[in-house]
Amino acid sequence: MNEKTTAELENLRGLIDGVDQQLLHLLRKRLDLVAQVGAVKHGAGLPIYAPQREANMLAKRRAEAKEMNIAPQLIEDILRRLMRESYLNEKDVGFKQVKADLGHVVIVGGEGKLGGLFSQMLTLSGYQVKSLDKDDWVNSESIFDGAGLVIVTVPINITCELIADKLTNLPKDCILADLTSIKGAPVEAMLAAHSGPVLGLHPMFGPDVGSLAKQVVVVCHGRDADAYQWLIEQIEIWGARIVEAEPSKHDKAMQLVQAMRHFSSFVYGLNLYKEEADIESLLQFSSPIYRLELAMVGRLFAQSPELYADIIFAQEESLVAISDYLDNYSQALSILKSGNRDAFVEQFAEVSRWFGDFAPQFQRESRAMLQSVNDMKTG
Amino acid sequence: MNEKTTAELENLRGLIDGVDQQLLHLLRKRLDLVAQVGAVKHGAGLPIYAPQREANMLAKRRAEAKEMNIAPQLIEDILRRLMRESYLNEKDVGFKQVKADLGHVVIVGGEGKLGGLFSQMLTLSGYQVKSLDKDDWVNSESIFDGAGLVIVTVPINITCELIADKLTNLPKDCILADLTSIKGAPVEAMLAAHSGPVLGLHPMFGPDVGSLAKQVVVVCHGRDADAYQWLIEQIEIWGARIVEAEPSKHDKAMQLVQAMRHFSSFVYGLNLYKEEADIESLLQFSSPIYRLELAMVGRLFAQSPELYADIIFAQEESLVAISDYLDNYSQALSILKSGNRDAFVEQFAEVSRWFGDFAPQFQRESRAMLQSVNDMKTG
User: Fold this and answer.
1) A369 touches chain B (CB under 8 A)
2) Which of A204, A284, A313 is nearest residue B243 as measured by Cβ atoms?
3) Alpha-carbon distances of B294 from A319, B256, B272, B289, B363, rounded to whole Å
4) Which one of B74, B214, B301 has the shortest CB-CB distance to A27?
5) Digit-coded pLDDT (tens) for B42-59
6) Exposure of A19 by Cβ count < 10 A (0-12 exposed, 13-18 middle, 19+ buried)?
7) How far apart are the first and last CA of chain A?
8) Which SMART domains match (chains A, B) (predicted)?
9) Which of A9, B36, B205, B258 is least enclosed, having the fewest CB within 10 Å?
C-alpha cells in the first residue's frame, strides 16, 4: 500500500469514527426518550409492546429511507434491534400493577429458572412474592395463608402428583396456575385439587430471554376466568402475546414442536459423536446455514439433560410421532439405496406442493437469519 | 387512556421521530464515507473485507458505548448490520482486476445461478466473460479459442463426464477450474482432461448472497498453483475467505455438512406432510427456536428438487453417514420405548461431554440468532 492510499484511508476512517460517535449519542438520546415513553405507559398501565404503533413507525421510516436512497430494510433492522434494547430497559422502571388488592403470590418451584423469571416480573409489578421449594413444605401452611395466586413450576414428571398431594388446601378464592409445558394433565389435576379459579400457562420461551416483549404465552382456561383476567392483562403489560388454546390441541402440537424436535436434535448430536466428527473442521467448511444448524443442535447440550428428558418423556403419544419419523426416514433411505433419483425428486416435489406458500415465506425469513449469521463472523 | 397521557406520548413520539430522522442522515453519511473507502481500496487493489480493522473499530466503539451506558452489544450489532450494507454497495464501484493480461473467461454453465454470480463478479472486475451453455457446443471451438480461464459449473451428476468428453482441447496455458460441491472426482477429471493449470473451487454459499464478504470458498489445488494464484487473490478481493483443503477431506466433511443435513431436513418436511401437521397452528405455538427450525426446513422446499438430489446422490459414501444416523435414531428410540429415563440422561450427558466448550459457545451464538428472530415479529 503506498503512502497516498494509506493517508486517504486514514482520513476517511477518521471521518467514519466521527460519524460513529454521533451515532452513539443519537442512540443514547433515543434510548432515553423511549425510557420516558415507558415511564408514561407504566403510569397509565399500557402494554410495553404496541404492534400497531411499531408497524406505523417502521413504515414511515422505510419511506423516508427510500427517499434518501437508503435500503428500507437497513433502517428497519436497526430500529428493530434498538426496540429490543428498549424493551430490555423497561425492566428498570418496573411495570404497572393490575391487581393492587391481591394477597401475596406463592411460586412453587421459585428457585428454578422459569420460576425465578416470573418471580422477578411479578416483583417488578409490585406484587409480594414468596418462593416455596423442596425444603419449605414444613412451613407451607403459613406460606399459603392469605395467598391470592399460586403458580406451580416444578419438573413435569412430578407436577400432577405434587398438585394432587399438596395443593388441596389453598384459600378458596386463590388462583391456581401452572407453567408446565404440557397442559392437559396439569390443568385437570389443578381442577381436581382446588375448587377456586384455575388456569394453565405455557410460556413458549426459555428463561434466558431478557424481556417478555413479543414472546408467546399459551393460556388454557380452567375455571372462573373472570377471577384471573387481571393476570392475563398483567402478562400482556410485560409485552407478551397471549395465545388461547384447548389443552388437548396444545399438547398435540407440543409432540411435534417440542418432543420430536428435541429428540431429533439429540440424535443429531449423538450421531456426530458416534461418527467422531471433527467439529472444528466441520465449522471451517461450514456454510452459514450449516453453522446455524450446528449451533441449534449444540445449544441443546449446554443445557440440563433432565429438562429435555422431562419434555421428551412427558407425553406417551410423543413416542408415536418420534416413531413415525423413523419410519419416514427409513422409507426415504430405501429410495436413496435403490438409486432411484426420479422417485426422490417426485417425493420432494410432493412435499413442496404441500408446503405451498409457506416454503417461499420460510426461505425469505431464513435468508434474513443467514445474513445475520454471516454478519457475526470475525475472521 | 386519558388526555394527558395521550399528549405526553405524542410529544415523546414526535421527539423520537426527530431522532430517527437524524439517524437516517447519519446512515446516509456513513454509507457514503465507506463507499469512498471502497473506491480507494478498489484503486489500490485491497480486499473489501479487512478483519483486523473491523475488530479494532468494533472494540473502540464498544468501549465508547460502555462509557455512555449503552450496551456494547447494541452498537456492535448495529455496526455489523451497517457493514453488511456497505459490502453490498461495493458492487457499484466494481473490483480491482488482478490479472489484466488474461484472455477471456468461459463459464461452462454460465446460465445457472452460481455461474451467473461468478460471471457478474468477474465482469465487475474487468474481465471479459463468455457463457457456454447446452446449445453453444456447436461453437465451442471459437468460444474456447484464446480463453485464459474456463470455469465448469454444471450439475454434479454430469460434471466429470462433461470434463472428460469436452474439455480435452483447451489452450495449453488456460486455467481449468470447477465450482462443484464435491471435489475429489472433478479435480481428477480436470487433471486427466487438461495438461495446464487446474484447481477445484467450492463456494460454500448459495447464489442468493448479495455479497461475497466473509463467505467461504474452498480451494483444492490441482496443478501449477503459481499460474492461478491471481484468481485466489481476486476472490479474496471480493471479500471471501479462502480455505485450502485436500479433496478427500473436503468430500468426507460434505457427507455430514451437506448430504446428511439436507437429507434429514428433507425427511423432517416429509414427516410433517405425512403427519398432516397444521403449519399455521404449529407457528402459533412456536417458540423462536422452533420457528427458526421450521424456516430452515421449509426453505429447502422452495428450491429445486434436482439440486438437492444432485447433492445427496453425489457421493456413494454419503449413504453410510445417512444410514448411521438411522441406526443411532433407532437405538435412542429404543431407550425411549423402554421408559429408561436415566439411560437417556446418561447418553445425553455423554454427548455433552464430547461437545465440550462448543456447547456453551453454540448456545451463545444461537441466543443472538433467536433474539433476532423475535425482533422480526410483527404482531
Assistant:
1) yes
2) A284
3) 20, 20, 10, 9, 19
4) B74
5) 888 887 778 888 899 999
6) middle
7) 21
8) CM_2
9) B36
pLDDT tens digits, A28-47: 999 999 999 988 988 888 87
Q: Average pLDDT for residues B281-305, to the nearest whole number?
A: 86
Q: Is the pLDDT of residue B14 over 80?
A: yes
Q: Tell me the pLDDT band of A3, cut-offs 50, 70 and 90.
A: confident
Second CATH level (architecture) for the domain A3-93: Up-down Bundle (1.20)
Instruction: List the grid coordinates of B358.
Output: 462448543
Q: Which CATH number fits domain B3-90: 2.40.10.120, 1.20.59.10, 3.40.50.1240, 1.10.3720.10?
A: 1.20.59.10
Residue contact A348–B377, C-beta within 8 A: no
Q: Which residues of B touch A298 (CB under 8 A)?
A: 355, 358-359, 361-363, 366
Whether the per-residue pLDDT at B379 is higher than 60: the answer is no
Checking ipTM against 0.90, whether it exceeds it is: no
Sheet containing A105-108, strands listed edge to edge, beginning at the edge strand earlier in sequence? A129-132, A105-108, A149-152, A175-178, A198-203, A216-223, A241-244
Round to whole Å and give the CA distance between A124 and A104.
14
Task: Kindly report the nearest CA distance between residue B289 and chain A, in angstroms.
Answer: 8
| Mean pLDDT in residue range B259-277 | 90
CATH code: domain A105-245 is 3.40.50.720
**Which fold, B104-245?**
Rossmann fold (3.40.50)
Q: Average pLDDT, whole number, for chain A?
A: 91
Q: Which residues 275-294 on chain B approach chain A with CB closer than 8 angstroms?
A: 275, 277, 279, 281-282, 284-290, 292-294
Residue B127, min C-alpha distance to chain A (Å): 23
The shortest CB-CB distance from A309 to any of B26, B302, B344 is to B344
